Amino acid sequence: MSKLLIYNQMDRRNFIKKSMLVGAGAVIASNPLSKAYGFSPIGLNKKAICIGAGFAGLAAAYQLKLKGWDVLILESRNRIGGRVFSHLTPENHVIELGAEWVGASHSRLIELCDQFKLKLNNNQFDTHKIYQGQYTPAGKWSYSKSWEEKFQSLLENFRQLPDDEKKELDQLDWWRYLVNNGCSDTDLDLHELIDSTDFGESIRHVSASAAIEEYAESSEKNEMDFKIEGGNGKLAEKLAEQIGQQNIYLSHTVTHIDQKEKVKITCSNGKTFEADKLICTMPTFAMQKVKWSPELPTEKTKAINELQYARINKHAMSFSERFWKEENFDLISDETSHYFYHATKNQKGPSGVLISYSIGEKAAIFGNRAKEKAVQDVFSVLEPHFGSLQNKLKSQVNYYWGTDKYSMGAYALYGVNQWHRLRPILSEPFLHTHFAGEHLADWQGFMEGALVTGKEAANQITS
Ligand SMILES: Cc1cc2nc3c(=O)[nH]c(=O)nc-3n(C[C@H](O)[C@H](O)[C@H](O)COP(=O)(O)OP(=O)(O)OC[C@H]3O[C@@H](n4cnc5c(N)ncnc54)[C@H](O)[C@@H]3O)c2cc1C
């Protein structure tokens, strides 16, 4: 999730749960009797399986290893990282087709980077605007003063509310909440453009409760603060090294989960695996396809069938020169190309990558378009303000998350009356299985949320 914000003074409250920390020098328990398939041959250790090699599954497996468990990861894709998807361009730049920003409040992720000696580079931007055909540079536009003050007071009031009153906001969508509180005209249009970039769909579809909780708790640049040098995928690589590559089974799609005294997993390639415990980090769309024996509780199945995911399209274009000039360039627009940002900040020029990022219906349009047509759309928005771009484009790559085979979306989208109702049901363990993933996290929609829920699930099964 990206969180674009133009309010200046955001208070931040650190509400991340304190979890048991393992010191930087901790040694992973290794079992000298372990063979290639990871599990101890004479059953010395407890065994666990994690489904998914995204950040939640990797974080869970890493924590289990630290606690001396034998652990395996089963992953459908032929790569690790899941929705963290770093990509090397033909021009040798690393860009992100999935998660981009690390937030200043994302303490577990920052701690892991510190532990694995991964450098976090500043990835903050100053936002330009194209609205109703007019271009305005960064620093020259904002919400109206009166609305800015009102919004700050709404956030402040929210922070003081008792929990049960906070929950009442789940009955409204974010657009309705803003309108009911006096937001109108250009301020409302700007909220739609800016906040929908965060949620991946129109703010008319987002729970007001989920939205305000995030805005009330976020860092000054609203969690758009850093990026891991060399790509966010580096953290997946480091975790995988610690877990042991031989314990991660790529191209293994789980199709059947059987829970009796133990857990028995069957994959689409016919391979089976047994363990004492299971951590399931699949997005809900993928969970729907798995056969559970015994069946999942009815209310969990209903929750899985109800939750939506946001559509995001990333169209990355490599240009021979950085015509946008500023390294910290990003731009919001009311065109189909909804948002642009400089994706090669801190990487060598003169060439550079601009990502066109669209959400919701706009993402679906881009996702279905031929690249040539998509580029013409982008040029028609940018060229009136930045000059001819035709001869500057060197390469391009597009990824549409709305049709990603495993998630059918970028991240979970909690709608009206879902944040407080569905999340606890989805988080509830079932027999030997514990659940983790961004969709269950306080930092929902973020890498941090995936890491924290993965670690927590591992702590639950080992406690
Ligand atoms: C376009 C986009 C932009 C984003 N921007 C940001 C951002 O700026 N900052 C941020 O912090 N976060 C951002 N995110 C969100 C972040 O990527 C996710 O919150 C996080 O990576 C989710 O991790 P996860 O482990 O919960 O899920 P995943 O990464 O989806 O991992 C689950 C894994 O399970 C696997 N799987 C599914 N079904 C099966 C099966 N049957 N058998 C075996 N394996 C299976 C999947 O292949 C997947 O690898 C963004 C995401 C996207 C897509």
From TrEMBL:
Residues 55-461 form the Amine oxidase domain. Pathway: Plant hormone metabolism; auxin biosynthesis. Keywords: Auxin biosynthesis, Oxidoreductase. PANTHER family: FLAVIN MONOAMINE OXIDASE, LYSINE-SPECIFIC HISTONE DEMETHYLASE 2. It comes from Moheibacter stercoris. The keyword Oxidoreductase applies. Pfam families: Amino_oxidase. It is an enzyme of class 1 (oxidoreductase). This is Tryptophan 2-monooxygenase. PROSITE patterns: TAT. SUPFAM superfamilies: FAD-linked reductases, C-terminal domain, FAD/NAD(P)-binding domain. It catalyses: L-tryptophan + O2 = indole-3-acetamide + CO2 + H2O. InterPro entries: Amino_oxidase (IPR002937), FAD/NAD-bd_sf (IPR036188), Flavin_amine_oxidase (IPR001613), Flavin_monoamine_oxidase (IPR050281), TAT_signal (IPR006311). Its EC number is 1.13.12.3. Its cofactor is FAD. Belongs to the tryptophan 2-monooxygenase family.
